User: Which sequence fits this backbone?
């Protein structure tokens, strides 16, 4: 039996927001996971509540950023870059709120949780971005929710220049052809904004290479399996969950501005990570199994 997202009181549509972290997690020496009173799910839920991001699963609860769904640690040896943890929520802020998709807060909260559990060597992030505003850009708002994002970008202004990192960002609309069709226009639109946090260089819609990360979430959450993708090359001011969350919201708004309404799978990894993986395959490294278990949410809250 296939599990479905947890039922949430007052939900208008299912806007699943999912993140999988890939790399290595070295547990704190003083923390025994078998004896710990908190796990990834409980830590994420409590951190979300403390920071004012969690919409509680009860009638009459004020709508914040998201409803809790599920989270867990767990290695995925089938991926070329091991998956170490995943988190799943449902966006509760109204589409009409005028706010960016809360991916920056989502990944910041995840970063806090991982810091409690160990030391994370982050090598890649995969996000499922929920469907955007029906009908594309909001009337009278030619730049949508981008204003709040540009103001938030100042947080990264004083980053050490030596931390600049070239990354490859893949957006995949699965069986829906929308992303390759609008990707060139998205890059032009993104380049109109004068900011040094994420500088977009180019986009390829002819890249037919197999993704390094297989989706960690079932196709019934989006128009999977992967097929229609665009690969953006850009330079980030730093390599962190925080800035990846900002980038995800930026790209989500760009896709909405270009009429994309379907959920999109977003993968972010460093250019060096991609190069080293390809070098390994070229050297005759054995290909890992391409079958990856799709994670499922736990049962609905009472």
Assistant:
């Amino acid at each position: 039996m296939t599990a479905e997202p947890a039922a949430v009181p007052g939900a208008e549509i299912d806007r699943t927001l999912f993140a999988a972290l890939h790399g290595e997690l070295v547990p704190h020496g003083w923390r025994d996971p078998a004896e710990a009173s908190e796990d990834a799910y409980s830590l994420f839920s409590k951190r979300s509540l403390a920071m004012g991001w969690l919409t509680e699963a009860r009638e009459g609860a004020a709508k914040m950023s998201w409803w809790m769904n599920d989270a867990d640690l767990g290695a995925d040896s089938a991926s070329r870059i091991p998956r170490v943890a995943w988190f799943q929520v449902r966006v509760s802020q109204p589409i009409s709120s005028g706010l960016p998709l809360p991916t920056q807060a989502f990944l910041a909260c995840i970063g806090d949780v991982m810091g409690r559990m160990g030391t994370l060597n982050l090598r890649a992030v995969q996000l499922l971005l929920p469907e955007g505003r029906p009908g594309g850009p909001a009337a009278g708002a030619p730049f949508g929710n981008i204003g709040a994002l540009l103001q938030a970008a100042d947080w990264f202004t004083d980053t050490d220049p030596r931390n600049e990192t070239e990354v490859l960002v893949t957006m995949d609309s699965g069986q829906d052809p929308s992303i390759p069709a609008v990707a060139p226009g998205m890059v032009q639109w993104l380049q109109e904004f004068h900011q040094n946090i994420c500088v977009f260089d180019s986009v390829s819609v002819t890249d037919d290479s197999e993704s390094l990360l297989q989706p960690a979430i079932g196709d019934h959450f989006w128009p999977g399996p992967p097929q229609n993708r665009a690969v953006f090359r850009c330079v980030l001011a730093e390599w962190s969950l925080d800035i990846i969350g900002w980038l995800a919201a930026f790209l989500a708004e760009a896709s909405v501005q270009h009429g994309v309404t379907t959920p999109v799978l977003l993968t972010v990894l460093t250019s060096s990570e991609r190069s080293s993986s390809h070098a390994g395959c070229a050297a005759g490294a054995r290909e890992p199994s391409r079958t990856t278990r799709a994670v499922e949410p736990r049962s609905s809250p009472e």
